[in-house]
Amino acid sequence: MNETKLYKAEILKDFCTNVLIGAGVKGEDADIIAESLICAELRGVKSHGIVRLSTYIERLETGILSLNAHMEFERKGGAMALLDADNGFGQVAGHKAMNTAVNIARTHGVGLVGVRNSNHFGIASYYSMLALKSDMIGIVLTHSSPAMAPYGTITPLLGTNPLSLAVPAKRGRPIVLDMSMSVVARGKIRYAALKGEEIPEGWGLNSNGYPTTDPNQVLKGGSLVPIGGVKGSGLALMVDILCGVLTNSCLTGEVKNITDMSGPSKTGHMFCAVNISSFMDANAFKSNIDQTINIIKSLDAIGNNSVYLPGEIEYELEEKRKREGIPVECKVVKSLNGLANRYGLPAL
User: Fold this and answer.
1) What is this structure's pTM?
2) 3-state SS of 9-59?
3) What CATH topology corresponds to 4-182+226-281+315-342?
């Protein structure tokens, strides 16, 4: 059984920020990265939370990830922009790109910003939800390293390629969809392997294309299972084209795994902000979303189950963890404290 300790979100965020600063990251950038990691922890996506910090630091120390990246817009005109992340932190590039998309949308009704030469950026919903603050709809896509075989093959080529959409409401919680094109995110497979646990059948295939419950077989030459079979495979390909090929970051299958220290990851992202007020009154739209939520909530549930909309479970968990603390496995705490010791910082 894996023992856990509870930590206040603020304590973990400050710890991550200080470790990143200790590794040479600028304070403002370190704060953004730490915020995205804690966002993942609060919303229950532990595979993209503080467990990633050690890998980020390793990429910095080996020089695979640029510490002093000079991010510049290569193209900017009308409703679009293209940001070259210069092999810097994906969180910093994503934050800059989504805020730019929001600013563009204020003028043009919609803003579309592509990012090339980036890295892993954490959970996609962290960025889509940034648009909510401006009464806009946020849409985020990213591709990732090969983890899923195109439908009908056994060779991993497509990434899990997440998609997130965030829609504001007036009185209800925002509707936030955050999903990968595989049955589960690869991070959950990695997390199961880290803890020495099996995965449910239907999550992954071995190198011969057959189902397995061993996460290590999936990670070593195997493949994740796409949602909806051929449909999920097709969606993953389209995300790869938009994020990798259209941004001129890399071709399908060329993104490097976050743990691959042989070179830059060549990750691309796509960020879109939709200005609701360009279509209709924003308050009227949000009231309509409230009504949509109420209509769905009023439907008869199956058995004694509760009816949840996308993102609602995560919001409830976030509220609980803000009150009670975030559970962190002792094994992860030990790893993090190793980083603290390296930079002369207080342990958790």
Assistant:
1) 0.94
2) HHHHHHHHHHHHHHCCCCHHHHHHHHHHHHHHHHCCCHHHCHHHHHHHHHH
3) Ribosomal Protein S8; Chain: A, domain 1 (3.30.1370)
